[in-house]
Amino acid sequence: MGVFSGTPEGALGGLYLLAASGVYTGGLFLLAGRLYERTGTLEIGRYRGLAQSAPGLAALSLFLFLAMVGLPGLSGFPGEFLTLLGTYKASPWLAALAFLSVIASAAYALTAFQKAFWEAEVRPVEDLKAGEWGFALLVVAALILMGVFPGYFLQGLRPLAEAFAKILGGGA
């Protein structure tokens, strides 16, 4: 939506969100692989009470979900904010609809987290291993850096975003 808003802010936000999603998606794939290895299924509805036996896995999951839904201070926020800002400049009604979709995705992600990790039925699983912690910490560090210092990353994307905006009629 941001890229096609025709505004430099929207395009920059869309590109930044794409870069951020590459990082947290990698973490989510690590998470999915670890959950499958430990439970034998990828159905979230079949996980229950995992936080009691695997608190590290639960913490990583919550962190990745919060980055995905755009919690301020994490990688998803600058991209979502710029995307919504650019969309608002192009169409306030579309921006309102996009904002509602952000809220809906946060509700879905947090509900999924609650069901998988905090529901009453306890399914004991092994927590993160040493090698998994190393990768998890790299992902967490990248997501925090992208959320706290977005300017460093945005400067490289700005020329491309301005080109997109110019092509789509918003000007730079």
Structure notes:
The structure is a single chain. The protein has 172 residues and is mostly helical. The protein has one domain (6-162). The protein has seven helices and no strands. The protein has helices spanning 8-39, 50-53, 55-69, 76-90, 92-118, 130-148, 150-167. The longest helix has 32 residues, at 8-39. The chain is elongated and about 55 Å long.
Low-confidence segments: none
Number of domains in the coordinates?
1
Give the oligomer, counting copies of the same chain as homo and different chains as hetero: single chain
Structural class by secondary-structure content? mainly alpha
Largest sheet: none
Count of β-strands: 0
Instruction: Write the element-wise H/E pattern from the N-terminal end onward.
Output: HHHHHHH
Can you count the helices? 7
- What is the radius of gyration computed over CA atoms, rounded to a whole number of angstroms? 18 Å
The percent range for helix content is: over 70%
Overall 3D shape: elongated
Q: What's the pLDDT, averaged over the residues?
A: 86
Give the N-to-C terminal Cα separation.
17 Å
Kindly list the characteristics that best describe this protein.
172 residues; mainly alpha; single chain; 0% strand; 7 helices
Layout of secondary structure:
Layout: H1 8-39, H2 50-53, H3 55-69, H4 76-90, H5 92-118, H6 130-148, H7 150-167
Helix pairs in contact: 1-3, 1-4, 1-6, 1-7, 3-5, 4-5
In short:
It is built from seven helices and no strands. The protein has 172 residues and is mainly α.
